[in-house]
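sorry to bug you again but im stuck and you know this stuff better than me. below you get a single protein, a line of residues and a line of whole numbers that encode the local backbone shape. mainly i need to know what kind of three dimensional shape the backbone takes. anything you notice is useful, everything is just below:

***
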Amino acid sequence: MKQIWIPKHGASGVLEVREAPDPTPGPGEVAVEVKAAGINFADLLARMGLYPDAPPLPCVVGYEGSGLVTSVGDGVDDLSPGDRVIAMTRFGGYADRIVAPRAQIVPMPEHLSFEAGAAVPVNYLTAWLMLRELGNVQPHHTVLLHAAAGGVGQAALQICKDVGATVIGTASGGKHERLREAGCDHCIDYRTEDYAEQTRRITNGRGVDIVLDALGGKSFRTGYELLRPMGRLFMFGVSSFAAGNKRSLLRAAMGLAQMPRFAPVGLMNDNRGVFGVNLGHLWEEIDRLQPMLQAIAARIEAGAFAPVVDRSFSFDEAAQAHQYIQDRKNFGKVVLCP
């Protein structure tokens, strides 16, 4: 099989395609021929040496993929070779063959392309977990959505629109027209506008009910200050730590230093909530993630959700794919196709 390896930390050019023996499913496992593998910002951080959860180098990262079942292990009697599936992996997803436990695999909606299927697990589970499972988003809520044009951003926007919530999205100005077409109620250009000031203007000073923030650093503090009473801040990434092409420990240290510390008494007095979300730390809770993924698949089948794929790159173009995301060029998901 082919895999994309991170042999050392560095810019996108360090990625290498290597050959390895095909994996064999054990009891309760499923082997899948991967047609598309999703890229997430955590993969870029791992490549740069800024993701502490990444496996030791050299390693293969990747949390998700879609493809065809090739074989199943003992005890798996509800899937057969040729079935179209979506798979969740805890690393190792950048490969044209993977093996995953049956609990981490769901049938793929028939009308989805493989590229769209690979855009489902991480993006939609992260957004669903924040907005539906923990955030209890309601039609009367206003949500501040950072990086609204990204993979998680597009999934979150669709979930908000599905329940009728109002969305304020931040993105570069060139993406605003498409965001409005997708249902974003208010767009803020984070490069030229003060998003906090604009958010207060849009909400007539009331603030928002939910903030989804994967930027990190001082942005978490600003997001908390923009919450209305009973508002919730969700922190699920630190993309601001990877502004350049190479690792900057100074930038990361400054970002960490700028993060707020939330005191219990202050939270009680403010009637606000703060949540941290890291889907990669929930693999031991797969029995709780599985129903969420099934609910997401049902909404896709119903036409309420439609995964947005910006571009697909071949395995040989993995470096270009990483750079494309790092340059903030994508609108929606970027995937790798063997």
Remarks:
- The chain has a mean pLDDT of 94.
